[in-house]
Fold these 2 entries.
Entry 1:
Amino acid sequence: MNTNEQKFDVIVVGTGAGGATVARELSRKKKKVLMLEWGDYVPLTGSFKHCFKSLLFPGRGLLFTNQMLGLLRGIDTGGSTVFSCATFFPVPFEMLKSYGIDITAEVEEQKKELPIAPLKDEMIGPMSKRIMESAQDLGYNWQKLDKCMYQDKWKPEYKFSHYGDPHGVKWSARMYVEEAIANEASLINGAKVKKVIIEKKTAIGVEYKKDGKKLKVFAPKIIISAGGIGSPVILRASGIKEAGYNFFFDPVIVVRGIVKDIDVPSHEIPMAAGIHMEDEGYIMTDMAFPAAITAISAFQVFRFDKMLSRRKTLQIMIKAKDALYGKLTDNGGVRKNLKRDDKQKLMRGFERAKKILKNAGAKSIFKTWYFAGHPGGTVKVGELVDSNLKTKYENLYVCDCSVIPEAWGLPPVATIIGLGKRLSKHLTSE
Ligand SMILES: Cc1cc2nc3c(=O)[nH]c(=O)nc-3n(C[C@H](O)[C@H](O)[C@H](O)COP(=O)(O)OP(=O)(O)OC[C@H]3O[C@@H](n4cnc5c(N)ncnc54)[C@H](O)[C@@H]3O)c2cc1C
């Protein structure tokens, strides 16, 4: 495609939760949308090979902090949602309203359009059930969580789609990208955007690299949705030097124990149930990892004896609300050492998870090393974008996890979709 010969109304950079929503909504309003996506667009097969290239390749999807905390992001059409657990958490309406953002109507719209519901009983796997029963027995209000899955398409023989869903059961933003394309939006893959072209304090286009060539494309509106790490890197290169500081990434540990009388199937759906320990600053959920990830994460903490025991393992994920600190380098290197308070939150969760697992009959309990998958707060509303998500430059907007203004700690996709819908309405009303 020769982008210079085409006229676009909007360029959207990145096709994850934020970018795909904006592209879908604007294309439905007959806007001419161009999506630029660094990742590939190959059919999802559910293979580890695909996941390795798009999520686990060091320096691309997988970034390490100096504490060797592995930060994951999906570089793919559909972004991180391709690899997500599809758990939808309630949106913090009041917090957003305090920044002048009301997405109540947009979230209602989302609920009508997407299959958001707790899993039906036959989709709850034995690990999740065992952990939920044990937690409830100890007095926890441990309940099924909302998932965004087309449950009527599910079959027990399908593996859970940690590596991308070939059956279309799990919702991912790729579905919105495909809807946008059906509405005549254009998508260029392998296009790594470097910076926004600014003239007289107004964004007029972007510069990107594809197949080793530097290219430019122009449009009257530019939306940066390259995720919590990608967006601040592009903004810094475009003159917004304050982007990429004091962020969150929601650090995680997984607590594991072995039980003899269980056989965890490969279709076990992770994060089916859990609890939000709001006062203590973390969530706890079941977490069925695939075999390779179970092995790698046991290896990381020298539990070589537990690398191949996935089918006999109960796993509880603790995801903490870390405070806002740290900085990104200009190339997207992540500099953030977990402070004592944040480690303590995870340790409190570890102690609770240990008791739940023991009560479920588990032995040989241990925890994995830290990792994270929700980078955000790098281009905060109220600091670097206004309540319409506009930057200091005319016609330049940001819409993804980076704009979240406060410490977070929750799965963010439902909120980001709401923000994407609201931005699209704002742009079409202008
Ligand atoms: C393993 C895993 C499981 C998760 N499970 C859940 C869950 O159950 N529920 C939930 O709510 N959240 C979950 N999350 C988090 C959630 O997926 C992300 O927070 C969310 O997708 C962020 O949306 P985003 O639009 O900010 O960024 P992303 O979805 O990451 O999208 C960013 C996009 O920008 C592209 N990009 C980056 N840089 C450039 C560039 N320079 N040029 C062009 N394109 C670029 C990327 O390829 C990507 O497509 C999970 C995350 C991971 C990693």
Entry 2:
Amino acid sequence: MNCCNSKPIIGLYSGEKLCKIHFNDYFESKVSKTIRQFELLGKEENLGVALSGGKDSLTVLHILSKLSKTNPKIKLNAIAIDEGIHGYRDKTLEKARDFCNKNNVELHIFSYKEEFGLTLDEMLKILDVKPCSICGVFRRYLLNKKAKELKLTKLATGHNLDDECQSIIMNQMKNNIQASARLGPKVGLVQDPKFVQRIKPLYLCTEKEVTTYAFINGLLDSFNECPNVPQSFRAQVRDMLNSMEQKFPGTKYSTVNSFLQTLPLLKQQFRSDAVKICAKCSEPSANDICNACVYLEKLKNSIIVK
Ligand code: SF4
Ligand SMILES: [Zn+2]
Ligand SMILES: [Zn+2]
């Protein structure tokens, strides 16, 4: 990228420094290239964006809504999940609503309370589990179910290069390589009508780049982090990777790039473990009963016992 070098706002890991205008161009063309390189979008899509109201999902929605304005064959909807996390989700949902109103994007909000009868905060008072484990299971479950009901052809998420790098390392550390086979810019092992294909347009953008883009485009006004983050394994891996990146710039890119080379083999190896149907709810599942139903049963039993 040829930058005019007036007032650089960011230094890339390659050493290049970019001004606001040229960074914006660099970032948007990187996302377009990612979409082309990994064939994330077809010619016609009824596309959903999983919107949390945080910087990553607002950035992906901002870029895709620009694309949809110039390409009427790409229709755009946003889906937000209200887990019921006091003092956090209410604020980010406000931001999500605001963005969608201003940009004419239809927003569908679904909550744990309405769908499962309890907020995440209430679930965590009943069960002694890691917040992100149960939260992630219910979020993925609801996103897929609602995306199917809305007849979305794909669901874009705001996952960036840092998120992917953390997931790769976490799966290695937990000896859960099968979960890594489901990673990549196009999520999942096989294309199956039970799953709405999830795609990650920010796959090759670092957290630093996304934060900078969100900031200069008015998508980030205050730092807002879920109160459960410090308890998560992911937060430990994130800090470790940030420290490695600082000492050895390019660590995250190298980790993700080398993973991408092994990903086709992993997908091949675990292809046969693909998709079953949950005997209770008929949603897709890796086991006979899906994790969401397992947690719902545990919650029900704990409430009865108490
Ligand atoms: S950080 Fe964990 S608990 Fe908070 S929203 Fe994300 S997955 Fe849920
Ligand atoms: Zn410039
Ligand atoms: Zn189920």
